[in-house]
């Protein structure tokens, strides 16, 4: 519409100027009849010349002399004068709009330059009614033509958009819907074909994502099958090892010196194998149950963990519990006990392996947003390789014979509380783990409190 306005208004103004120039030219041609004879022309001929020119009178100025060449009665007083010699584009547009808006048939004077330099100026008087009618008809033709051009342009644009944008987008949507029905089927991965650069980039990204997802789903399915097989094997193997452990306990009291020396190693080996089976079965469960959050006194829980790990008696590894007696937090007591037991056990085993003993410190604190728990030791620190996959299942083992599941399960339990478990530091002076538990809990968690 803006383009039509920018085209229509100047066109109508140009049409009005051409219309007036044509009247001046016809009036000049009619006045030439007087120059061909020295006699006075007949009134009927003069009237016919003026009618053909579309004016009431003609004034031609030649050699600084103003001459009334042709004349007839003027039906009304002259309303306005328009000098086409000094009219610029804006004046022509303004005057054209004025004629279009004024429905009254008025008499105007028009001044211009004669053609072929046949004088200094030519001046005519005429009516605005025919001019306005011609301008309206011309404007209507231009408007209809603009509408047709716009309609054709719109159709071409619609077809172009349909073919270049809408159709490729629909194709992408169809591929996404088909892929969602069977993401494991590699045949449903989209093949980029769009000629539009932006859509081609989107198709390339979608293809890459679908291939990665299909590969991940296949790997997950294989791992699930492998996990199921491992769980069954671990279950049966645990039963066999439990029986073997009972017999090993009996032969531990044998009087045979060789059997007495071998029995503890056999018992330890069987115990580690049973622990591996139990950890594998525990991790192979679908999911840990959601924590039952309740107000919990932390110091008694920490003392129970230290006692269960044998750190409160006479042992090379001792416990230092730096928790105020009245320290209260909101957590699942059983799950938090498992997490602390795992961290304390790892610290104790790491220091016992050095043969030098040490201290396991359990401390806690809080701020406005969270509670934090710290489990640190004075052991040798973690090896660099263990830190890379510390919380990954079967990869984060830090000691020989370990399953690599303890820290993975502990991190999962803490995430279930909405918190996080992280390694604070690990160097030659010891290792420190930090547990962060948020004080703000969701409505779903509150329902379990």
UniProtKB/TrEMBL annotation:
Coiled coil: 199-226
Cross-referenced SUPFAM superfamilies: ATPase domain of HSP90 chaperone/DNA topoisomerase II/histidine kinase, Homodimeric domain of signal transducing histidine kinase
PROSITE patterns: HAMP, HIS_KIN
Alphabetically ordered keywords of this record: ATP-binding, Coiled coil, Kinase, Membrane, Nucleotide-binding, Phosphoprotein, Transferase, Transmembrane, Transmembrane helix, Two-component regulatory system
Annotated localization: Membrane
Catalytic activity: ATP + protein L-histidine = ADP + protein N-phospho-L-histidine
GO CC term, one of those recorded: membrane
Highest rank taxon of the organism: Bacteria
Record InterPro entries: HAMP_dom (IPR003660), HATPase_C_sf (IPR036890), HATPase_dom (IPR003594), His_kinase_dom (IPR005467), HisK_dim/P_dom (IPR003661), HisK_dim/P_sf (IPR036097), Sig_transdc_His_kin-like_C (IPR004358)
Membrane-spanning intervals of the chain: 142-161
Histidine kinase domain location: 232-441
Ranges for domain HAMP: 163-218
Protein EC: 2.7.13.3
Enzyme class: transferase
Main location, first listed in the record: membrane
Name of the protein this chain belongs to: histidine kinase
Pfam entry (one): HisKA
Species of the source: Pseudotabrizicola alkalilacus
GO molecular function annotations of the record: ATP binding; phosphorelay sensor kinase activity
């Amino acid at each position: 519409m803006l383009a039509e306005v920018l085209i229509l208004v100047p066109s109508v103004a140009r049409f009005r100027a051409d219309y007036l120039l044509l009247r001046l030219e016809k009036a000049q041609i009619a006045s030439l009849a007087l120059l061909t004879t020295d006699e006075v022309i007949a009134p009927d001929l003069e009237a016919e010349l003026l009618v053909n020119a579309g004016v009431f009178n003609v004034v031609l100025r030649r050699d600084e002399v103003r001459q009334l060449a042709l004349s007839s009665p003027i039906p009304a007083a002259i309303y306005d004068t328009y000098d086409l010699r000094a009219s610029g584009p804006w004046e022509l547009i303004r005057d054209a709009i004025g004629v279009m808006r004024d429905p009254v048939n008025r008499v105007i004077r028009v001044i211009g330059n004669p053609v072929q330099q046949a004088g200094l100026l030519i001046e005519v008087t005429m009516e605005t009614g025919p001019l306005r009618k011609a301008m309206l008809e011309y404007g209507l033709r231009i408007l209809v033509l603009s509408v047709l051009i716009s309609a054709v342009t719109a159709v071409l644009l619609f077809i172009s958009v349909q073919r270049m944008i809408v159709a490729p987008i629909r194709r992408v949507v169809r591929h996404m819907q088909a892929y969602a029905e069977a993401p494991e089927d590699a045949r449903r991965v989209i093949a980029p074909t769009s000629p539009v650069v932006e859509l081609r980039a989107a198709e390339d990204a979608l293809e890459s994502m679908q291939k990665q997802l299909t590969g991940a789903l296949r790997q997950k399915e294989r791992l699930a099958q492998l996990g199921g097989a491992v769980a069954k094997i671990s279950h049966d193997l645990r039963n066999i090892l439990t029986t073997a452990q009972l017999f090993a306990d009996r032969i531990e009291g044998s009087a045979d010196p060789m059997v007495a020396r071998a029995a503890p190693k056999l018992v330890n080996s069987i115990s580690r194998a049973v622990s591996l089976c139990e950890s594998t079965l525990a991790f192979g469960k679908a999911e840990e149950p959601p924590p039952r959050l309740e107000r919990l006194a932390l110091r008694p829980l920490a003392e129970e963990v230290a006692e269960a790990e044998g750190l409160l008696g006479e042992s090379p590894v001792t416990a230092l519990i730096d928790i105020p007696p009245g320290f209260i937090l909101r957590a699942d007591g059983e799950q938090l006990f498992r997490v602390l037991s795992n961290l304390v056990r790892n610290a104790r085993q790491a220091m016992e392996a050095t043969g030098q003993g040490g201290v396991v410190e359990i401390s806690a604190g809080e701020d406005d947003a969270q509670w934090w728990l710290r489990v640190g030791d004075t052991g040798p620190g973690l090896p660099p390789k263990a830190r890379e996959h510390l919380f990954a299942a079967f990869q984060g083992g830090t000691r020989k014979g370990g399953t690599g599941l303890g820290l993975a399960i502990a991190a999962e339990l803490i995430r279930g509380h909405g918190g996080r478990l992280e390694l604070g530091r690990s160097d030659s002076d010891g290792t420190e783990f930090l547990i962060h538990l948020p004080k703000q809990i969701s409505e779903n968690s509150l329902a379990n409190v």
